[in-house]
Amino acid sequence: MKTLPLPADLSAVRIPRAAIPDPGGWTFDGDGFALAELALDGGGRWRNIAPAATNQAGEWIALPPLVEPHTHIDKAFLRARAPNPEHDFEGARRAIERDRAGGWTLEDAMARMERALELAWRRGVMLLRTHIDSQPDRLEPCWQVYAELRRRWQGRITLQAVASLGGGKLAGEHGERLGRLCREHGALLGPVLYADADLRANVARMFELAQRFGLDIDAHVDENNHGHGDGLRTILDHLAHAPFDGRITLSHLCSLSRCEPQEIELLARRAGEAGLAVIALPVANLHLQDRDRGNTPYWRGVTAINALARADVDVALGGDNSQDMFVPWGALDPLAVLRDGMLAAHLDEPLGDAVARVSAIAARILGEGTIGQWRIGEPADLTLLRAADPFGALSGDFEERLTVRGGKVIARLGWEG
Ligand SMILES: [Zn+2]
Question: What's the CA gap between 205 and 403, in Å, rounded?
């Protein structure tokens, strides 16, 4: 692979607070950025990360290694092949049923899943968690492909997988089979918990299986507009009398932002006390929630990120589906997700802190706490944007975007000039 040269002058680069483990001694502007002098050694590792000697900004902005904490690469790029003309959740479910009825070949799954990883890699993703449809008749070919890709991409992207299926399908022998499969692949258990009459039983079964097989959990919870937070409440009630040893991540949690304000604060506080982490999926839920054909929506579909953050809940932002029947948007680019998430959820925190939601905070939720920040002596993994302003850069107003891994430029986006 041809590599491009790194910019020669990194003596006054704007860097976000989120990228450095100890921000003491640095001076940050209102966007949460500081001017840094960066230097690499001959082996592509950080030799210097220090406050710049000048207050005259250079032409580069540097961002930390990126994380995609929630995607579905098994379904990626199916939008045109399996269209969802209704654009809603039920239409998407019908479209995937139709597409899977013909059976998926290993070649098809491999090509789409690997293309997703290529995109993520070129956009600076070092750690990626994908959910994989795991209904009784759907374990293959995707788990086989996942195992092969995990091996093939080792050293480039750290991969995690979650076995995903309707919560009721964990019952009986298939639940046991999934417990063994997850343990074998180092994967998580991730049912989709619907707010139906079986919710309590499905939550109990999820925890019982995960505890017995030693698995962490990342469940799709409250992806609806009911405004009751039924899934979150049921999980909190369960944990109040049945402790669980693994990590618990709840994805989506849309319905929480429809609860009454006092209820949101109370549930957020209980989530914080229970040590839950949350992954919000702004692009997917802007697209799927509050969809009433012909009408313009007024609810944004995202969870109550600000209230959760105030209650010390780690909240990351994920891209969810990419160019499939559920979500036609998405190119495995955490910076696009960050921009859309800040806009959708009114994340008014400084951008230099918010970037942690697609880097350090996301990595911590995924149990890979060393990813997402720079340390002297470690490989220099970063995104460099030649841009005057960080908001402009995330809006596409940049001359170049370079993905740097171990000190080498592995991808470049920008004007050809
Ligand atoms: Zn999802």
Answer: 43
